Amino acid sequence: MPAHTDQEGPRNPTSKEDVIRYLKDAFLEAHRAIGTLTNANLLDQIRDPYVERLRTTRLDAATVFLSHTWDHYGQMVEYLRMNDLRPPGHQ
After folding, report:
1. Count of structural domains, the chain
2. By CB distance 3.0 to 4.6 Å, which of 26, 56, 66, 68 could disulfide with 60?
């Protein structure tokens, strides 16, 4: 997560530009974080990014990050279909 936000995203976006800026910052932070992974540090224990009182490995955190993204993608596809819209790339 970008350092200036929490897990719920920006508190009071006032424009489309605010949302786009947040998303771009989040992707930059994700790329930065994934870029720090090496074979030597994958099993290092870190604070769980989703439950602060727990510990996890860098590998587990990266795996959840990637799989959780697909959960949201699936939710967006279903929302579009329920509203008679075709998601990009879907027939």
Report:
1. 1
2. 56
For residue 6, being part of any structural domain is answered with no
If we measure between CA atoms, which residue out of 16, 21, 69, 59 comes closest to residue 39? 59
Q: Is residue 9 one of the residues assigned to a domain? A: no
Report how far residue 75's alpha carbon sits from residue 4's, in angstroms, rounded to the nearest whole number. Answer: 26
Q: pTM for this one? A: 0.64
How do the pLDDT tens digits run along the chain, 91 residues long? Answer: 555 556 666 777 788 898 888 889 888 988 998 999 999 999 999 998 778 899 999 999 889 888 888 888 889 899 999 999 987 776 6
N-terminal to C-terminal alpha carbon distance within the chain: 33
